[in-house]
Amino acid sequence: MTLTVATPHAIGRPGYTVHLPCQPESVRRARALVSSVLETWGISSLAEDGEVIVSELLTNTLDHTTCRMATVVIERCSDDAVRIEVADESRTRPQLKGDNAESGRGLFLVAALSWRWGCDEHAWGKRTWAVLKTRAAAPSVFHPAPTAGSAR
Questions:
Q1: Which of 126-143 are b and which e, b meaning 16 or more Cβ less than 10 Å from the residue's Cβ?
Q2: N or C: which end of the chain has fewer CB within 10 A?
Q3: Domain around 51
Q4: Domain count, the chain
């Protein structure tokens, strides 16, 4: 078993980075890191969604690349937002498949749980990321129509 230690960011946005071997047990470690960091930052309400997101992103790396190592980064973008990313050396972009596909629906979960998500390509590989916002900060999807006689 390889010991992995999350490194706090010394400059820039608050965050943690960990390098994990591309092995199934790394998904459990990444989930635990996300949960621990979000609890430390006082936004444990995002932990469940954050764990699912990091699981899906890291599992995509395990299933669709030949990388030996992946990097997980958790950054505090603002008081109400957290960015979770998984970086690997593959330049193959993740594909959002149809919801009727037998496999590959993990990105639908990432899209559903996150405020925004995407993939940034680099010469060395890619970073697939998702941003979570606290419930209070996320815009409401439901806007009730005004009733007769109500003022706006």
A1: bbbbbbbbeeeeeeeeee
A2: C
A3: 7-133
A4: 1
3-state secondary structure of 15: strand
- CA torsion angle for 13, 34, 141, 136 (degrees, to 10)? -60
CATH number, residue 118: 3.30.565.10
Per residue in 63-97, pLDDT (tens digit) is 999 999 999 999 999 989 999 999 999 998 888 77
Q: What is the pLDDT of residues 113-126, one digit of tens each?
A: 999 999 999 999 99
Domain assignment present for 139: no
Pick the more confident residue, 10 or 131.
131
Q: How far is CA 8 from CA 5, 47, 65, 136, in A?
A: 10, 18, 27, 27
Identify whether 63 is part of a domain: yes
Tokens matching residue 71: 């990097």
